[in-house]
Hints:
With 332 residues, the chain is of the alpha/beta class. It contains eleven helices and 13 strands. The chain has helices at residues 15-22, 58-68, 81-92, 108-115, 145-157, 192-195, 210-219, 227-237, 243-263, 284-293, 317-330; strands spanning 27-28, 75-78, 98-100, 119-121, 129-133, 161-165, 186-191, 204-207, 267-268, 275-279, 296-297, 299-300, 309-313.
Amino acid sequence: MRENLPxxxxxxxxxxxxxxxxxxxxxxxxxxxxxxxxxxPWTPDPSALKDYPDDRYEALKEVxxxxxxxxxxxxxxxxxxxxxxxxxxxxxxxxxxxxxxxPPTFAEYEMAARLAxxxxxxxxxxxxxxxxxxxxxxxxxxxxxxxxLGALDETANEGxxxxxxxxxxxxxxxxxxxxxxSHEHLFTLRSLTKSFTVPGIRFGYGFGTxxxxxxxxxxxxxxxxxxxxxxxxxxxxxxxxxxxxxRERIARERxxxxxxxxxxxxxxxxxxxxxxxxxxPLEAGVLVARLLSHGILARDCRxxxxxxxxxxxxxxREENRQLIEAFEACLP
Length: 332
């Protein structure tokens, strides 16, 4: 048995578990899902289940490639973005390597790097991989495209890889994306399930040079994108432009929600996407428990190293009103 395995990371989105345990209905503010997803004219076809998926996913990659102006050989797909984070780290990291991770950020970067045998550090110098979440989760900080390209030049000069996670960029500002950049030291990650509000199907995809993608695909388990996920993804990418409307509506609701949080005296990080990280005047776990009793599931940020912060998603106006009412009842 392998020793010194890292502990599993905490995540939001456990609304089903809480509903089964607590009973009743909850509004899930812990998972950052698009509250205004495009309507996709798709119905599962049971006949698709009688055959194995095409493990090369050629048709799916062609559709993704045409959406973003990339060659199919520059694209990888996986069962959620986490699978691709781990496949990437398994492909490029090994014992003695270092991975640069600037906390607080998505915990799975550290998990994947450590499972690959690497050491994690906040020092960019000499790192084999530098992770950059844009916009960052949980802070919401959005790096500009020039900033990212500058980081790419620095990383490439030291012979490392820049891993840019753009899971929420479609709900923030796609103009800052580097998804169109093909560079031998760059890997760009995306997630369909957050922007189209289908986290249950688990679908992530990434971009790199053909040589890097071949390595990642070798590390990825076969057939991990199931037939229903593949079919939905193909249809979703054909309606990709509809996300612009989602961004506009999220921006309006985010502004309204932040205004109410300010009225309550709560300090928060300047948000850019569909979630807000805020400092609270009591232990995060205590407040999350109080909110839960009012039917609100929020993200306790202690696992990010932030014991007095919680993160909430931006949802619809009526749901956001209920969140504010719950805060009014639960804050000291």
